[in-house]
Amino acid sequence: MTAVASAVTIPARERAVQARALPTRTIRVALAGCGVVGGALVRLLHSSADAIGARHGVRVEIVRVLVRDARRKRDVPLRAGVFTSDVEQFVAEDVDVVVEAIGGSDVAGVIARAALGRGTRLITANKELVASAGASLAALGRTAGATLDFGAAVGGSVPVISTLRDLLGTLPPVYVRGILNGTSNYVLSQLERGSDYPEALAAACHRGLAEADCTRDMDGSDTAAKLAIVAWVSFGVDPSTLPVRRIGLLPEPARFVRYASALGGRVRLIAECARVTDGGITCVVEPVIVPLESSFARTELEDNRVEVGLGWSGPLAVSGPGAGGAPTATSLLSDLLSPVPRTADSSPTRAFEAVDDPRAHSWLVAGRVSARTLLRTLDTSGIPIQSVRASAGDSHVVTRPAAWAALQPVIAELAASNADPLVARVELPAVGRDLS
Amino acid sequence: MTAVASAVTIPARERAVQARALPTRTIRVALAGCGVVGGALVRLLHSSADAIGARHGVRVEIVRVLVRDARRKRDVPLRAGVFTSDVEQFVAEDVDVVVEAIGGSDVAGVIARAALGRGTRLITANKELVASAGASLAALGRTAGATLDFGAAVGGSVPVISTLRDLLGTLPPVYVRGILNGTSNYVLSQLERGSDYPEALAAACHRGLAEADCTRDMDGSDTAAKLAIVAWVSFGVDPSTLPVRRIGLLPEPARFVRYASALGGRVRLIAECARVTDGGITCVVEPVIVPLESSFARTELEDNRVEVGLGWSGPLAVSGPGAGGAPTATSLLSDLLSPVPRTADSSPTRAFEAVDDPRAHSWLVAGRVSARTLLRTLDTSGIPIQSVRASAGDSHVVTRPAAWAALQPVIAELAASNADPLVARVELPAVGRDLS
After folding, report:
1. How many other C-beta atoms are found inside a 10 Å radius of the C-beta of residue A241?
2. Is the CB of B344 inside 8 Å of chain A's CB atoms?
3. What is the model's pLDDT at position A16?
């Protein structure tokens, strides 16, 4: 047999079976929020109505939409009468499902508790809400016979939560680690391509990835909330009580990009939840300098990427657009069409606890000081240095592996002398001039 | 605020909630097959019993195992009495779920029809069975009120089917494309590292990836079956009627590796299902020569990788170990613990049909002939040539974009003159010496 002899010629066209099932059931939905995500969901439901009817036998009807200004004209295929700005009217609506896409915790929390408390299924894209109140909301729902789904809260379109949930019957992961914020990753990519920070931010806003204030994206808060949710799903730890060690990219993200480039790598804001002792997990969000050819360095623009280590030959990985209206709306729709709630089993039932990170990593430590001053500061800490670079009062070192805790006095001393200290984890195989 | 000031110190240890739910329900399982995959499932169920009980409130009991030799000693935590080699006794067992992990279509088909026909849920890792009879089995199950799940049939541990299913409510993908066979990818990786083919095959067997005869892995048949299942889930086309254009890596995989290396790329056996006309899809499995730095080239050893194009900025991608006992068993367990069947909506309901591939690609065409002869053969076809290389009666060209159909006379002529023709798709940005 030759390699090509097995090719099969395609026969004459043959119609696939076309019997379209007629929608047999209507799902009545109340939607909170009609911005980037909510609006995208409305449009997606409209454009996919036939496919949804054929494939799932259901018709999704949006009967009420909560917005700030009910009279504002919106580019969505809905009649004007469905809009309301009255939260009480909104939560009183008798529906099958409430979809929450307004973000924040205040009004969103009122809506979530009202829905779950009277037994109505809640689907949310709101990572702050789930991170801060997910466990209690799920408990409230269990009592009332309603469920909480939040696949859209992490990863945008990337099936992070469902992938983790699929692994729930097995031994827990060794680690879950990834890029969970599309906006900051987009900004880093633009900085790498030569933009300055204001330009990069403006481009992210223009692309519909960010609001005017994206502090929570850039300082790692958004990532930390998502990581807490990941830890909840993977390790059963109540996300509201989970400590997350967090270093963000502010105030000057371009410095991270510059130092990473000097070291021959790229910086990525990486979230990690890892089993570091038998029953202990550590959660960290921090800039990590990774090799140029690594999968994380190659995760660009608004893409997210999550790797799940299971102790096999390689990790499971999922990646794709992690921000933006259409990707997040797709994830909401996926939860909405799931024949059963997916998150009934998210209650904290395992014996994992959060512990201090005992692991040693190499660190980039930078400050607006001379190399001599920086080295002297580190010398007192006893942390060995691997390499040092300096230019005109802006110096950075890469340390040999050291625990996070050992680094704290150094950072405190640099901060006290107004040296604008900056720290990132370094995961490069070999870095710079070796001083050992 | 400095970048590090936002770091949160981890407080004193605090026990997470430990209330373990007691298993409230027993799932009685009959398992067909106790080889690499079946045995791994038994071990996984044993080691994860506590986690399953706590997390899902269920206890999984394996009450019967079908094997060829019931008296053979096996390294699995099961009492000897559960084994049987009697298919009739096996199918008569009254259980909640039948898990089929024996492969092939004959006995597996009998077991599947018996289970689904009397209303028992079937979970299978058997891609041949699902590709050849999935639609009729699903229909049989629907009539009897039972469901068919087959997440483990594609991708090993990689959540290919569940990711595609999650997208079902939206408009169908533009394309699904990926590496779906871990064994052949492992062999290609070993060849790239300098092994010869027998060594690479032996290593794959030793790793538990392949049986002694891995013709179906290497000739693309296994990949084609998985692609048909992917097309069923994504586009609703009955997989048993779906034509798949297929080029394998046999008889001499090392030739592909050698030519790809000469062109500065790597060869991967890639399966693709793409919408090429409004309602038409094309399914192909073929060696593709991809750039060294591409995600597919970087998918090594037994990893699988699937990309789903949705018309967004980038594709969704899932990757990870795609072969081996533990990864596949994890996928079976995931289906087993899913609170509801996942595949109730896999009936062919959309109007997609399979059509000939109208797209033009660059092709590598090689033969054991002189460059002059190869060029003359191509010249008669009218397909323009981009580059040519030759060494001692072994020549290969890269064509300019041409449709697959236009290539067939060339291949036929080369085969007729015993030139061992070989064809691969080329996806390199610029290849070799330009002859235009």
Report:
1. 15
2. yes
3. 31
Q: Decide if A345 is inside a domain.
A: no
Helix (H/G/I), strand (E/B), else coil: B124: strand
Rounded CA separation A299/A295 (Å):
6
Query: How far, in Å, CA of A174 to CA of A274, rounded?
Result: 6
Residue ranges in chain B whose pLDDT is less than 70: 1-23, 169, 212, 339-350, 430-436
Three-class SS state of B367: strand
How much is the ipTM here?
0.89
Could you tell me if B145 and B201 lie in one domain? no
Q: Cα dihedral angle (B247, B248, B253, B258), rounded to 10 degrees?
A: 20
* Residue A21 to residue A72: CA distance in whole angstroms: 37
Residues of B in contact with A289 (CB under 8 A): none
B1 touches chain A (CB under 8 A): yes
Name the band, by pLDDT with cuts 50, 70 and 90, for residue A349.
low
Residues A140 and A176 in one domain: no
pLDDT digits (tens, 9 = 90+) for A417-429: 999 999 999 999 8
Please tell me which residue of chain B has the smallest CA distance to A246: B7
Q: Residue B128: give the domain boundaries.
A: 25-149
Q: What is the pLDDT of residue A338?
A: 82
Structure tokens at B239: 């997989």
Chain A residue with CA closest to B415: the answer is A2
Give the C-alpha separation, B72 to A45, whole Å.
Answer: 56
Residue A218 lies in a domain: yes
Residue type, A153: A
Kindly state whether residue B435 falls inside one of the protein's structural domains: no
**Chain B residues 307-326 with a CB less than 8 Å from chain A:** 308, 310, 312-321, 324, 326
Domain count, chain A: 3
Do B337 and A169 lie within an 8 Å CB cutoff? yes
Annotated catalytic residue: which of A56, A226, A255, A396? A226
By three-state DSSP, how is residue A297 classified? coil
Which residue of B lies nearest to A248 if distances are taken between CA atoms?
B3
Return the structure tokens found at A202: 């403006």
Question: In terms of domains, do B33 and B143 share one?
Answer: yes
Q: What is the pLDDT of residue A144?
A: 94
- Shared domain for B317 and B182, answered yes or no, is yes
Which of residues B119, B149, B179 is at a domain's end?
B149
Q: What is the pLDDT of residue B224?
A: 98
pLDDT value for B50? 85
How confident is the model at residue A431, as a pLDDT? 56
Per-residue pLDDT of A68-86, as tens digits, reads 999 999 999 999 999 999 9
Residues A269 and A367 in one domain: no
Residues B75 and B199 in one domain: no
Give the CATH number, domain containing residue A370. Answer: 3.30.70.600
Residue A434 counted as domain residue: no
Q: State the virtual CA torsion across B77, B83, B85, B87 in degrees, nearest 10.
A: -110
Residue B339: list chain A partners with CB under 8 A. 340, 344
Q: pTM for this one?
A: 0.91
Q: Do A6 and B163 touch (CB under 8 A)?
A: no
CATH number of the domain encompassing residue A166: 3.30.360.10
Structure-token pair, residue B57: 């409130």
| A97 and A47 fall within a common domain | yes
Domain boundary residue, one of B321, B348, B370: B321
Angle made by CA atoms B197, B202, B204, in degrees to the nearest 5: 95
User: Chain B, 249-288: which have a CB under 8 Å from a chain A CB?
Assistant: 249-252, 280, 282
B240 close contact with A: CB closer than 8 A: no
Handedness of CA B54, B56, B62, B66 (dihedral sign): negative
Q: Is B14 close to A353, i.e. CB distance below 8 A?
A: yes
The alpha-carbon gap from B127 to the nearest alpha carbon of chain A, in Å, equals 19
B381 and B251 both lie in a single domain: no
How far apart are the C-alpha atoms of B153 and B130, rounded to whole Å?
8
Query: Quick check: A180 pLDDT over 90?
Result: yes
